[in-house]
Amino acid sequence: MDSANPLQQLLVRGLGTTNLVADRLKLVIQGWVSSGRIDASQAATLIDEVSGALRGDNPEAEKQAERQLDRNLSQLLQDMGLARQREVDELRGRIDRLEQQLRQQRQDGELR
Q1: 85 in Cβ contact with 74 (< 8 Å)
Q2: With a threshold of 0.70, does the pTM exceed it?
Q3: Is residue 72 part of a domain?
Q4: Which end of the chain has less neighbouring CB within 10 Å, N or C?
C-alpha cells in the first residue's frame, strides 16, 4: 500500500472495518442461535441481509437503516431541545410572512 495515497489508505481501512463488523455480526448471531433467540434459518437470512447492506447490495435495508437513523436523530435533537434545519427554515418562512403582514397593516394604517 502506498503510504503517500490517503485515499487508498482510507479505502483499505474501510474494507478492514467492514470485515471486522461482518465477523463480529456472525459471532453475535451464532450466540443468538445458541441461546435460542433465533433459529438457524433466521440467522442465515439476517447475516445475508446485513452483509449485503454492508456491501451496498441491499437498497431496501439501506433505506430502512436510513429511516431508523433519521428517527433516532430527530428524537435526539428533540430530547436536546434543538431544531432541525427544516424546522428552522419553516420558522423563518413564518416570520417572513408575519413581518410582511405587519408592514402591510402599517401601510394600510398610514393611508387612512
Answers
A1: no
A2: no
A3: yes
A4: C
